[in-house]
Amino acid sequence: NIRFGIVSYISECCTQTSLLHMCDNSFLQKHGLKVLLRDPYSFTPILEDSQGEEVPRSLLLGNNIAETQKQIAQFSLKDAQAFPKYEEFMNRLVTAIDPLLDICPMDVAALTQGSLRQRFRTLVGLRALYRVGFALGKQLP
What we know:
Shape: elongated
Strand order of the largest sheet: 1-2
Largest sheet: 2 strands, antiparallel
Number of strands: 2
Family: Belongs to the carotenoid/retinoid oxidoreductase family.
C-alpha cells in the first residue's frame, strides 16, 4: 500500500513537476500509474450580462504560448504581451519551491527552545529554505 498526501496548488506546472518526479519510481509504473498531462490545462467560462446574441466568452490556457496569448488578448492586449514574462517567473518560482514539498516542516520551537542538537538539525533544514530565497532573490513574493 502506497500512501502520500501533498496538497499543493502553486500552479499547473508545479503539479506536473511533482507528478513527473514521482513517476521516476518504476514501482509505481509497474503497478499501472499513468500520468496524463492536460493541454489545455485551464478553462474558465466567463459569465457576462449579454443582451442579444453575443456568444459567451471563455479563457483557455495551454502549453502553446502563442495560443494562450491570443486567448488572453480577448480581454487585455497588455496582459497578453506580458504573459511570457509572467510564465517565466512562475516557472522559476515552481523550480525554487518544488524541493520544499519533499522535506518535513521545520520545528520552529526546536530552533528557539530545543537542545543544541535539535537546533542544529533545524538549522540544517533551513538550508532548503535559504536556497529558495537565493534562487528567487529580489523577486521573492
